[in-house]
Amino acid sequence: MSPWRRVAAVLGRDPAAVRHLRASLIERRDAASAALAFELAAKLHQEIEALDWVTATQKVTSSGQADHDACGWWEGTLVTLAIRAGRLTGWTQRTCGAAAASRHLAATPPEWVAFAQRNAELAARLSV
User: What does each C-alpha distance from 6 to 2, 3, 55, 90, 102 come to in angstroms?
Assistant: First the structure.
């Protein structure tokens, strides 16, 4: 199978392709760690986390039709998800301190807190 087809299979959430890639990344991470290549092992661990996020069940709609913003914050990065008519319609990210982020986080609907937080963690890690 060509590399492009493997990528398409993973992005299409083909269970076998995802399992194979995840196992390969774990094997490479563990080998890097055993060889004391901890920076490489950390990067591979981040890739595993990103794979898990990309292939997770997507939550881009809610049962309600209300408009609101859902915010998540992690290590100086604030992510704002725009929910319009119950659907995720856009997102932004910006640098923001914890104190300034707190009012945005407090206004986030409870059912969106974990999703927004995970997106903020990923955004912060990818922006490094």
Answer: 6, 5, 14, 28, 41
Look at residues 104, 118, 121, 98 and name the one whose alpha carbon lies nearest to residue 70.
104
In angstroms, the CA 89 to CA 72 distance is 16
- Chain-centroid distance of CA 98 in Å reads 20
Distance CA 11, CA 77 (A): 26
**What length is written for the chain?**
128
Helix (H) or strand (E) holding 87: strand 87-95
Cβ atoms of residues 101 and 78 within 8 Å: yes
- Say which residue the tokens 């950390």 belong to: 42
Tell me the per-residue pLDDT of 67-111, one tens digit each, with 9 for 90 and over: 889 999 999 999 999 988 878 888 899 999 999 999 999 999 888
